[in-house]
Amino acid sequence: MTNPGILLDAIVAQLRAVPLLVAEMGGDAQRILPYYDEYPKYKDVTRAIALLPAPGILVVYEGTSQGGGRMQPWAHQFRLVVKLGEKQPTDTGAVHYAALYLLVEGIPTANPLNLLNMEINSSCDAMDVPRWQRQSLIVSAAGDSIDYFVVNWTLTEKSA
Fold first, then answer.
1. Maximum Cα interatomic distance, the chain, rounded to a whole number of Å
2. pTM
3. What total of structural domains would you count in the chain?
């Protein structure tokens, strides 16, 4: 089994290598962050999501399950938490949701394939088709909330 931390680091590196995605993060690749479980500093994913700057992406390792069968024994799940930045009121939906689009169609520098079709790490096949959805997080006793998107990526290890 591949160490999931290696895959987490590879995902962050490939996302940071997509110039158009970095542009969507205000030109700052450091707004694409890995989440490492480290007690006591990083022990609360919900808090990390609340503190994630907008625009920003937080990559979280969710777990590992059985892959596609005996030949692909491990499937690693990752959650990409995406906070979009503000756009001009006249911008179209295509402009506003560009970061979500680029999490599938973005092309990293020095790679001819988009994220969906490339191997993020040589131990795994290209990612399964991801799914994304809107989520909300209540951040105050008064009921104030923040909205963000979650994009679920699964990387299945290659057969041995």
1. 53
2. 0.91
3. 1
How many beta carbons lie within 10 A of that of residue 85, not counting itself? Answer: 14
Note down the domain range covering 93.
4-156
Q: How confident is the model at residue 42 (pLDDT cuts 50, 70, 90)?
A: low
Residue 59: pLDDT band (50, 70, 90) is very high
